[in-house]
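USER: Write out one fold?

ASSISTANT:
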Amino acid sequence: MTTTYDPRHPAYLDEGDLRAELERVYDLCHGCRLCFNLCPSFPTLFDAIDSHDGAVGELTAAEQDKVVDECYQCKLCYVKCPYVPPHEWQLDFPRLMMRAHAVRQAKPGRSLKERVSDEFLGRTDLLGRVSSASAPVVNALTGRLGSLPRRAMQAAVGVHAERLLPPYAKQRFSTWFGRRQAPPVETPRAEVALFATCFVEYMEPAIGRDIVAVYEHNRIACCLAAGTRCCGAPWLHSGAIDRFASQARANVTALAAEVRAGRDVVVAQPTCAYVLRKDYPIYVSGADAELVAAHCYDAAEYLVLQHRGEGGPLDSEFPGEVPETISYHQACHLRAQNIGFKGRDLLQLTGARVTLVERCSGIDGTWGYRAENYELARKVARPLARELGTASSEVICGDCHLANTAITQETGRHPLHPVQVVARAYGIAE
């Protein structure tokens, strides 16, 4: 039994040790098959094993690797698998897949296009700064699906020409936050440091503005942690663990200082919250990483916990616009955190009737952006589109901006973040 998932273990990047662990885990999955309908990796795995009459040891390296390529790190194995640690079998499928990518990254001979694609998708802060500074031009070039610029983009950096991309905002969230003239919150019930994430910082600052407005409306003081950057998820999921750890250490240092100053950390997007809570303690070991993880919250989760906590309920007067029906999409990386359905619970405070939708959007980080995954990603998203169409709710909500963009592509509708719905219900202007 190898079970080498520690990135600091001397055998972590050893391909022979990895292949032995892939065989061990694939054999366990083959004997269970509880995840047969969870994601594309498992049908591919079971079909390959069946083609060898159940002999897992006869899988070729290419057959093993196809399973790796089709895993998009939704993390739902942690919700469904009965053998995850601390079970004696130590079956950690998502971390095994990330290890396989790390081994691939460390090998020589990767194609230029693959390396360029990883660089493009991994340098989110650089791309965000450049693109927001020239947002009208960038959005015009990338907003027309299948256009010549998008086809050139696909050829150069591997992002599919037909994939809908979230547009960039002209003013970054941190710029707005630094310039706003807001009176301080008197006698705050709590204080938080917002980890805005790349999507809110560069693409959808309106979500951040509404989070600040709703929090301050309920006497929760907000600040931005200085020195933070992208959580590093694109590097982690592509296997560039050293670059991920470098970004993670900088964020841990900045956020641990905020926690020691008495503030909780509120994260505006679920993938980033998952990374801070679950991945930082593994790749950046130490007391600071554990401290940040213990004080990290999703934006809707924190409001619901405050509502139910010692400080008393949130303001329950909603003089603004409250939709009668809402379809709430529970993103995979929220489900994997096992925090319950806090976005739904928050929306229900307004009196709206909320339908819960638990289907994957097929994006999951950068996987669904890549050209080689595009058709499969759209296939994964179809059940989500069908459920949203069946519900026919007045408003669609979701915490994940990536998933919301995929919902727009599949349905033509534009989802809102749950806190944005609450902001409008309070009568807070957009």
Summary: Strands lie at 190-195, 220-224, 264-267, 296-298, 325-329, 353-357, 395-398. The longest strand covers residues 190-195. The chain has a mean pLDDT of 96. The chain is about 55% helix and 5% strand.
